[in-house]
Recover the amino acids of this structure.
């Protein structure tokens, strides 16, 4: 890993959904990461951030979420400075972040309950999202009665039920086995369709980043690279993707 | 619990009573002296007599009222203070040291304080009972709140939840298992203290009556008091225990108990166990489906995460 963490990308013509301008990232304990980050993420884009553990991916995500203040520089969403956490930027965790004492349905309803959406409307929305992640029959179960993969699907449903403008995902499938993981990637692509949400997807899996991302950001070198065929499994081994994979693996 | 185990438990109690009866009716005196000790029969008939008197039930009512009042006060204020100390630096700095200094003082040693501070004896006893249960609740709540998983709170914050939402949707429900640990301990300690306080300064109550019987050398009466305290203590502890289990059904139960839980009567527990079993198999099945969907592309060798 290099010490620079500069991410540079040309601003997309349409304007940016999320921007970091000369941001110095710091951990929760106040220790600063080396370098600064400047990054523009276009509306509806899926940006994959790939790098080894400890390179500051999670810190970047928590800073975007507003859970960690940047030590310097500015973070904005749709032109408005980010000053703290908000429902406009949902966070999906690698760990099991569902509230274990709430049923699956009550967990998915939570972002709507916080916004004081009427009960009937909440129920309907939760049912719809659970259906979309394939868990319609599990609404009244407690999270502990689901498998790890199912719990991550509930997390996805919960994050999207609040209709956030951006979804920040911190290695959401990192703890899943390879088969479940591939299924979850397809599910994610499927349910993001039509939401218009901007997604920042942090992973340490290069193939996952190459499959899901419109662009791939490498905090280690500061590069942001276009993916030739995003979200096409049949293009995973075409020459362009292979070249990009080789480049990423070399720079990690 | 199976009928066999139930029987075993009753038999164990019965054996202890039988041993007591033998030792006392034979006036055994081998270093331990049982000549003056009332027999089970004497205690039993004294208890039967007392059960027929209004005074017995009045004493019982007084003690119970003191326990319930003191304990509820301790539960509410203890959870509030424990949460405040765990969540707020101000509360930790301003109130933390005070709690640490007062906590080691045995509640019963606060009798003079109660007498000086509070206008009536009755309030004094409730105060002692309250202090006894208060500190276990504060300490266990503080630990439970500090041990909460940070992702629960971060999740709620990134759904737009504020401080109050985090408090009521994450902190309090999440801390409940730990809080109930403190409540169980607190209930035990408050019985010790209510009885002691009644012995020192009561006008009614099981502790007061027990001490009265002792001063007039009515030993069977003393034992009636002990049996009463034991039963009430057991009842109230069980009530706390049951309430705790009901409030924390979401806690994962050890898998071993699922396998061995043949015929447990409590409906909600066997229900959750059945759900657990059903959930597991259903989970496996639908994961299979999602894996199938992507089986073809996943068959291409996937690179493992870079080190």
């Amino acid at each position: 890993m290099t010490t620079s963490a500069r991410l540079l990308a040309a601003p997309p013509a349409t304007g940016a959904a999320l921007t970091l301008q000369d941001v110095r990232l710091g951990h929760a304990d106040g220790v600063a990461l080396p370098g600064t980050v400047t990054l523009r993420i276009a509306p509806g884009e899926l940006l994959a951030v790939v790098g080894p553990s400890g390179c500051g991916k999670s810190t970047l995500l928590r800073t975007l979420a507003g859970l960690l203040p940047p030590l310097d520089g500015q973070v904005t969403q749709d032109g408005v400075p980010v000053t703290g956490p908000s429902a406009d930027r949902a966070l999906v965790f690698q760990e099991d972040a569902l509230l274990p004492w709430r049923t699956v349905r009550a967990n998915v309803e939570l972002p709507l309950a916080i916004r004081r959406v009427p009960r009937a409307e909440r129920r309907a929305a939760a049912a719809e999202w659970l259906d979309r992640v394939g868990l319609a029959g599990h609404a009244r179960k407690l999270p502990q009665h689901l498998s790890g993969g199912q719990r991550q699907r509930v997390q996805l449903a919960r994050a999207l039920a609040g209709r956030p403008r951006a979804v920040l995902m911190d290695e959401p499938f990192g703890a899943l086995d390879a088969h479940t993981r591939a299924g979850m990637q397809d599910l994610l692509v499927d349910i993001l369709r039509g939401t218009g949400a901007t997604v920042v997807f942090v992973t340490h899996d290069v193939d996952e980043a190459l499959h899901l991302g419109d662009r791939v950001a490498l905090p280690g070198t500061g590069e942001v690279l276009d993916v030739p065929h995003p979200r096409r499994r049949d293009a995973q081994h075409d020459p362009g993707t292979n070249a990009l994979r080789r480049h990423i693996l070399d720079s990690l | 619990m199976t009928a066999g185990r139930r029987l075993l438990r009753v038999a164990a109690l019965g054996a202890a009573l039988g041993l007591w009866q033998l030792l006392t009716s034979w006036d055994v005196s081998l270093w331990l002296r049982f000549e003056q000790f009332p027999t089970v029969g004497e205690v039993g008939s004294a208890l039967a007599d007392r059960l027929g008197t209004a005074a017995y039930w009045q004493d019982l009512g007084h003690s119970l009222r003191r326990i319930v009042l003191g304990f509820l006060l301790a539960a509410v204020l203890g959870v509030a203070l424990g949460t405040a100390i765990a969540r707020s630096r101000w509360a930790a700095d301003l109130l933390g040291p005070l709690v640490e200094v007062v906590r080691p003082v045995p509640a019963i040693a606060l009798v003079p304080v109660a007498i000086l501070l509070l206008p009536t004896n009755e309030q004094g006893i409730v105060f002692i009972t309250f202090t006894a249960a208060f500190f276990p609740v504060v300490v266990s709540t503080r630990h439970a709140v500090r041990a909460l998983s940070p992702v629960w709170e971060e999740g709620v914050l990134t759904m737009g939840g504020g401080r109050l939402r985090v408090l009521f949707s994450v902190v309090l429900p999440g801390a409940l298992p730990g809080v109930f640990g403190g409540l169980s301990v607190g209930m035990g300690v408050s019985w010790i203290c209510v009885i002691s306080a009644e012995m020192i300064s009561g006008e009614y109550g099981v502790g007061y009556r027990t001490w009265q019987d002792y001063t007039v050398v009515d030993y069977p009466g003393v034992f009636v008091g002990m049996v009463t305290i034991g039963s009430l203590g057991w009842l109230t502890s069980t009530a706390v225990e049951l309430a705790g289990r009901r409030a924390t059904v979401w806690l994962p139960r050890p898998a071993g108990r699922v396998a061995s839980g043949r015929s447990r009567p409590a409906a909600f527990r066997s229900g959750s166990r059945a759900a657990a079993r059903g959930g597991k198999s259903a989970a496996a099945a639908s994961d299979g489906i999602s894996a199938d969907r992507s089986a073809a592309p996943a068959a291409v060798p996937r690179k493992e995460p870079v080190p």
About this structure: The two ends of chain A are 6 Å apart (CA to CA). The helical segments of chain A are 57-65, 104-114, 119-132, 148-161, 178-192, 206-212, 239-251.
